[in-house]
Amino acid sequence: MGISTIAAVRTIPDLRAQVRAWRSQGLRIGFVPTMGALHDGHITLVRTAKQRCDKVVVSIFVNPTQFGPNEDFDAYPRDENADIAKLETAQADLVYLPTVDIMYPPGTATTVNVTGLTESLCGAARPGHFQGVTTVVTKLLLQVLPDAAFFGEKDYQQLKTITRMARDLDIPTDIVGVPTVREADSLALSSRNAYLSPAQRSQALALPRTLQAVAKRLCDGSDADAHLAWGRDELLRGGFDSVDYLELCDAEDLTPLTHVGARPARLIVAARIGKTRLLDNIAVG
Ligand code: PAF
Hints:
Blueprint: E1 7-9, H1 12-24, E2 29-34, H2 40-52, E3 55-60, H3 80-89, E4 94-96, H4 100-103, H5 122-125, H6 129-144, E5 148-152, H7 156-168, E6 174-178, H8 198-203, H9 206-218, H10 224-237, E7 242-250, E8 265-273, E9 276-284
Helix pairs in contact: 6-7, 9-10
């Protein structure tokens, strides 16, 4: 076992002391919030943060408030030592590992809610999810006070919601979106891919394949409805058990679009294989 080179803190005062010391040296602080179970998508966020900032803080906190009562909070993969080893390799500078009691002390009564953007897509399928995300991300941003925070485009609605939240609340952190990292066969990296059996893992390829096929069909500007319906059927034919949504949306405000036109558009999907819910999205047009 090698000697640990990455500092780890578990309390807000210890976190702030380290960040304050760096800031007093004029260093730019980057932040990557995670729920652990780190994969190459997270490591790409850390590397991007390293390129743009002098010091990078990574938090690992499986946030209970963004899971619904019947979701996978208890089963969510947790391996702190493996995660810390990966962060060392990626040359993160500090890992912040708060407990639930530190994030939500008894008597906590405040939540953060972004209206509009969070009501469709994953917000419709997972009531309360985005309130849990925006509340914990606000708290983390206020605890770390970074210059920039890095989020993957795979969770596209989350990225747009946090960007809006930071703007609306005048949080002085640049929110940076980083392109989705994919396996060689195009499956988007996700901590939840670990739940897939080998057979489900190959069926999951229907997700990126269908997105590409629907995007191609939409590029002639024709009405989206029939193409989206074809895409949902294609996912079911490919082995998915259900499709929460497959939508063509405005790339900024996520309102539904009837066709690809002048405005940047995004094709966004969530579908389930067995108990595993997978997300993906691509730019269209
Ligand atoms: O994307 C995630 O891993 C989580 O939603 C986040 C941003 C770390 C908040 O818990």
